Amino acid sequence: MKNILVILGTRPEAIKLAPVILNLRKDPDVRVLVCNTEQQKELSNQTLNFFGITADFKLDTMQPNQTLAGVQSRILSTVSDIYKNNKIDATIVQGDTMTVFCGALVSFYNRVPVFHVEAGLRSYDLFEPFPEEAMRQMTARITDLHFAPTQLAYEALLKENISPKKIIRTGNTVIDALSCLSEKIMKEAQNKLLSRSVSLNDKLVLVTVHRRENHGDRLDRILEAITLLTKKYSDHQFVLPVHPNPNVYTKVHTALGNIQNVILTEPLDYPELVCLMKSTKLILTDSGGVQEEAPTFGNPVLVMRYETERTEGVDAGFSKLVGADIDKIISESDAILSKNKSETRLDGSKNPYGDGHATEKITTAIKEFWK
Ligand code: UDP
User: Fold this and answer.
1) Catalytic annotation, residues
2) pTM higher than the cut 0.85
3) What does 92-123 look like in DSSP terms, one character per residue?
4) Predicted confidence (pLDDT) per residue in 24-54, tens digit
5) Domains and their CATH numbers in the chain
6) Does 50 sit in the ligand 1 pocket, CB within 6 Å?
7) How much distance in Å is there from the Cα of 285 to the middle of ligand 1?
8) How far, in Å, from the CA of 210 to the mean position of ligand 1?
9) What is the 170 CA–ligand 1 centroid distance (Å)?
10) Which residue out of 193, 270, 292, 296 has the highest number of ligand 1 atoms within 8 Å of its CB and is therefore the one to mutate?
11) Distance between CA atoms of 170 and 357, rounded to whole angstroms?
12) Percent of the chain, pLDDT > 70?
């Protein structure tokens, strides 16, 4: 029996690791323990719930007005206790947060192999995204199995002198997660959206913005562009789940709170967001996960960032970088919103981020690792 500790802390980590946890739990020779650092406490726990997963360890590591070093030291010491009190044979982390780097580091200190899901994403700019680019690069140095979601990620790891024997091309588990939700949960999500007055029709625009680099002036410009778009396309409904970060929340409510065709919601439950993506005509986002999921539904995406480590979607014609540039956001949105939805659909079967089979490849490689 092998004990695998899955360490996560944020909503995207919960979404992207849920299929892996569920699949590994089918194996009678594996015991999966889940540690939630609760870097995003409510969002992560609530998201795990939709998949029927409860964390075995909940670390409650966040504090108000904390520094990055402060949260890092709390995660390191609380995660370390888990290794002290349990026999752990391998650690799985996913992505590029503080949780990922700290989880990998404690595992390494305990000489326990680290398996990194979504390895090899790079912008090569340590400040975009900050601090995530550094977190994922540092994690790569102490990882035993790198699960690269795309060919570009695979090549990036090779260039960093990681042995090809340790890199497995898998696709992104975010695509697998889309099919892990029960019909009942999806039906409830649809009803919840309707109760929020969201019209699931062909004139729906989804907007998400939360990244640290987009706080400040950039957010002002993004909100100005969206305000202009809501006026120009007054027959379209703009839905914006507002990130709870106070840097985002107040500005978004002040700028868009009184516009009749804008619906501001709390962060949507993952099933609700999936339901919304199925209907939406255009997505404006700075989210990584949304860039990966949206192509599956044939949605065009405008990425409100100046850099993306997810260039595959841009190259395949699913997404375009528009930064926080008002003119660009408006002209690229015009190109889609001025047409009927049927004219702007893309071929979802060509999603470059995965085919829904990443989890199988990951679990197979983990079993091979011990042979
Ligand atoms: N998401 C969600 N509800 C929302 C916004 C996003 O469930 O209101 C999901 C989305 O489907 C994706 C993930 O959260 O799978 C992306 O998370 P986020 O944008 O917070 O982080 P990033 O991917 O940029 O790291």
Assistant:
1) 96, 118, 132, 210, 212, 243
2) yes
3) EEESSSHHHHHHHHHHHHTT--EEEES-----
4) 999 999 999 999 999 999 999 999 999 999 9
5) 2-179+356-370 (3.40.50.2000), 183-350 (3.40.50.2000)
6) no
7) 10
8) 10
9) 21
10) 270
11) 7
12) 100
**pLDDT number for residue 128:** 85
Which residue, chain included where needed, has tokens 């002209």?
A: 331
Look up residue 224 and give its two tokens: 């100005």
Per the DSSP assignment, residues forming a β-bridge with 114 are 91
Report d(CA 306, CA 298) in Å as an integer.
Answer: 23
What is the bridge-based pairing of β-strands 319-321 and 57-58?
Answer: unpaired
Pocket perturbation via mutation, ligand 1, pick of 8, 10, 11 by most ligand atoms within 8 A of CB? 11
Q: What is the pLDDT of residues 287-329, one digit of tens each?
A: 999 999 999 999 999 999 998 889 999 999 999 999 999 999 9
Mean pLDDT in consecutive groups of 10 residues from the start of the chain, 371 residues: 98 98 97 98 95 97 96 98 98 98 98 98 92 97 98 98 98 97 92 95 96 90 98 98 88 96 95 96 96 96 93 96 98 98 96 97 97 87
DSSP symbols for 24-39: HTT-TTEEEEEEE--T
pLDDT at 213: 85
349 within 8 A of 173, measured Cβ to Cβ: no
> Residue 93 Cα, ligand 1 centroid: separation in angstroms?
17
